[in-house]
Each structure stands twice: as C-alpha cells, then as structure tokens.
UniProtKB/TrEMBL annotation:
This is Protocatechuate 3,4-dioxygenase subunit beta. CDD domains: 3_4-PCD_beta (cd03464). PANTHER family: DIOXYGENASE, PUTATIVE (AFU_ORTHOLOGUE AFUA_2G02910)-RELATED (PTHR33711), INTRADIOL RING-CLEAVAGE DIOXYGENASES DOMAIN-CONTAINING PROTEIN (PTHR33711:SF10). It holds the Pfam family PCDO_beta_N. It comes from Azorhizobium oxalatiphilum. Residues 87-115 form the Intradiol ring-cleavage dioxygenases domain. Gene3D superfamilies: Aromatic compound dioxygenase. GO terms for molecular function: ferric iron binding; protocatechuate 3,4-dioxygenase activity. GO terms for biological process: 3,4-dihydroxybenzoate catabolic process.
Length: 249
C-alpha cells in the first residue's frame, strides 16, 4: 500500500521488523491454534502477477449505507438495537502518512453478542435489523468512519468459561489480494479484554493497548452517538497487530 500521489522516493530510516510483536502461532491457551499452527518450517512462495496487481477498488462500488451498520440491514424506517456509536480513525503507514483509497471492511456481533451466521450457536437473540458487516474506503487523509452499535461480549468454546470482549473485526485491503490484513478493535475500559485467551496470546502489552480504541468525546454526536477512535498503522514500531500476518514471515 502506498500513496501514489507522493512521487518522492523513500529516504527515511529503515524500520526493522519486530518479530516478537505477534503471538507465536502455537498458543495452547487459545485452543484452536494447536491445530491451526504449522508443524513444519514455513516455505516462502513468490507472488503471482494477479496477486500483485489486483483488485482495484473504486469509490463507486461503495453503497450509500455500507458504512452504517445501524441501517444497512434494517427494514425501512427501523434500526438496529444497541448503543449507537461512531467508529473512526485513519489508516497510516509507519511514518504516520495517510494511506488513501484502502478498502476497510468490518464485521461484528450484535448488541447481545450474537453473530448472524448459520454456524452461530450462542443463545442470545438475533436482531432482525442488524446484519453485522459493512465497508468503506479511506479518503485522501487516510480517514474512515462508520456508524454501528456497540457489540456485546460472547462466550466461545475454548476453556471452561471463556468470553470474547466486545470487539469489531477489521480487514484492510491494499492494492492486491496479497495485501489483506486482519485485526480486531476493542473498547476502552472493558475489563473483559484482559481475560480473553486470544488477546492474551499477544505477548506485548503495548501491542494489545494499540488495539483498544479510546472513547472520543470530541466527536460524540449529542443525543445520538458516542465515538471511538481507532487508528490503524500498517508497519513499523507503531504497527497495529494484524492477526493474519506474523511480522517477518
Ligand atoms: Fe468475533
């Protein structure tokens, strides 16, 4: 991902990868990682042309309600149940420069902690007016924003009594299929964060803290929504932790 409008060559200091930033692939406290983690040495495969050059996103592909999860699956005149919030931030590179024209996708459970998915088994009720996914494209300043409801925490089959803290999943899509990064955002002040085995698989406390969005009082809309700010840094010392890519691989 790079800013095409910036024709100046990179001359800044090299940002070395921090290989301890991401959790080890094998983290038994997070039970699924036992079977998912590679058992043999990794192989490096070259990218194909189609992986490097596509896809290309245009702003025209984004629908009017794609960044409004309160309404994008709701019946006309109705809205999703839950605490109304705005989530916004910027996608930045390791030098703090904006990364424009990036497809940002997000998905989450409803206010009761239930996903609308055929394999979902949690007993919390489905909200017929909430689909739980949306998308937007960053503007020239690398900024994105969407409306949603605050998701609920939910239990998951891992240990005897494990719960996911309230969270929103994010996908950041660059200019090619091999440039997709996945992460999760948590909410400031949630005590559930520190009890989650997935969160606790991350060895560095500051990496966890960068996944926690602070409440943004300044952008609260009176009588409507509170705001949370979540900046996403693609690489470098301030990099957001991406769960699908271990730095150095
Ligand atoms: Fe989730």
């Amino acid at each position: 991902m790079f800013d095409k409008s910036n024709s100046q060559p990179e001359t800044g200091p090299f940002f070395a990868r921090d290989r301890s930033w991401h959790p080890p692939a094998y983290t038994p406290g997070y039970k699924t990682s036992v079977l998912r983690s590679p058992q043999r040495a990794l192989l490096s495969l070259g990218s194909t042309l189609s992986e490097i050059t596509g896809p290309v996103f245009g702003h025209a592909m984004i629908g009017e309600l794609d960044n409004d999860l309160i309404h994008n699956f709701a019946r006309p005149g109705e809205s999703a149940i839950g605490e109304r919030i705005i989530v916004h931030g910027r996608v930045l590179d390791e030098r703090g420069r904006a990364v424009p024209n990036v497809l940002v996708e997000f998905w989450q459970a409803n206010a009761g902690g239930r996903y609308r998915h055929k394999k979902e088994t949690y007993l919390a009720a489905i909200d017929p007016n909430f689909g739980g996914c949306g998308r937007t494209i960053t503007d020239a300043d690398g900024a994105y924003a969407f409306r949603t409801i605050r998701p609920g925490a939910y239990p998951w089959p891992n240990g005897v009594n494990d719960w996911r803290p309230a969270h929103i999943h994010f996908s950041i899509f660059g200019h090619g299929f091999v440039q997709r990064l996945i992460t999760q955002m948590y909410f400031e002040g949630d005590p559930m964060i520190w009890k989650c085995p997935i969160v606790n698989a991350i060895p560095d406390r500051s990496a966890i803290e960068q996944l926690i969005a602070p409440m943004d009082w300044g952008n609260t809309v009176p009588m409507d929504s509170r705001a949370y700010k979540f900046d996403i840094v693609l690489r470098g010392r301030r990099s957001t932790l991406f769960e699908n890519r271990r730095e150095g691989n």
